Amino acid sequence: MRAILYVGHGTRSKKGADEAKQFLEHVIREVKSEIQEVSFLELTEPFIDEGFIRCVERGATSICVVPIFLLSAGHIKKDIPEALEPLKQRFPDIAVEMADPFGVRQDLLDALAELIKDAAPDVNSRDSVLIVGRGSSDPVILDNFASIVAGVKERMALEQVESCYLAAAAPSFQDGIGDICEKASGRVIVVPYLLFEGLLLAEVRTEVHTRSRNGEAVLLASPLGKQQAVIDIVKNRASLEEGHYAAAHH
């Protein structure tokens, strides 16, 4: 019997962990699979090994791991496979495959455009957008963000669309927001390229609120996790038949 093991990042934020779990409960209700379990890479329980063993206890003969990650950085390439390896050795008869992270997709870019319009319904060409990523030392992530910036520019026809990062890449969030606010002739709409609430988003929220209180025209868009496009991506990855994953691990 095929099981689905969802793997989120995990967070120290109770609100962020609750949001992620609620999101996955929504997905589980809509995916037709008898065995579905939730797990997290770090910081939030249950962890990957607990979720995996629970799948086995429920009768799984194969497990499809569905990562709830926007882009393919070190967690996808290294951390999750490393967490799965001892489990694959412990349960050699269980076939294990891993779906891809979301990647840069037209439907996600459309969702970003919707979030910008939700934050500023009267958005116009004088406004600027700052897309804030988690950050990674992986150059592929920087290429991904260049594509995201280009996609938002194409959809919104704004004066400037730029990106920055909360860790591990430049420009930093502080440098990015300072620079774009200095150059902007209209409002600055800050768009967190994150799925759920958490400590990283709290940092962004605090900075935006501080600048707003100081009279700057800075708005904050919501994270992506409540967008239907994101729910649909996870449902589609979970619902695919065995053997149809580009990033399979047997």
Describe this structure in a few short sentences.
The chain is α/β, with parallel strands linked by helices and 250 residues long. The chain has 8 helices and 8 strands; from the N terminus they run βαβαβαβαβαβαβαβα.
Question: Your description of this structure?
Answer:
- This protein has 250 residues and is α/β, with parallel strands linked by helices.
- The protein has helices spanning 14-30, 48-57, 74-90, 106-119, 139-156, 173-183, 199-213, 228-239, and strands spanning 2-8, 35-40, 62-67, 95-98, 128-133, 160-165, 188-192, 218-220.
- It has a four-stranded parallel β-sheet, sandwiched between helices.
- Helix 2 (48-57) packs across helix 3 and helix 4 (106-119) crosses helix 5.
- The longest helix is centred in the middle third of the chain and has 18 residues, at 139-156.
- The model is unreliable at 241-250 (pLDDT under 50).
Main sheet characteristics = 4 strands, parallel
Backbone structural class: alpha/beta
Strand order of the largest sheet: 2-1-3-4
3D shape:
elongated
Reading the helices and strands in chain order gives EHEHEHEHEHEHEHEH
The count of strands amounts to 8
Distance, first to last CA:
16 Å
Uncertain regions: pLDDT < 50 for 5+ in a row? Answer: 241-250
Average residue-wise pLDDT:
92
What level of helicity do the residues show?
40-55%
Indicate the radius of gyration in whole angstroms: 19 Å
Strand percentage lies at: 15-25%
What is the number of helices?
8
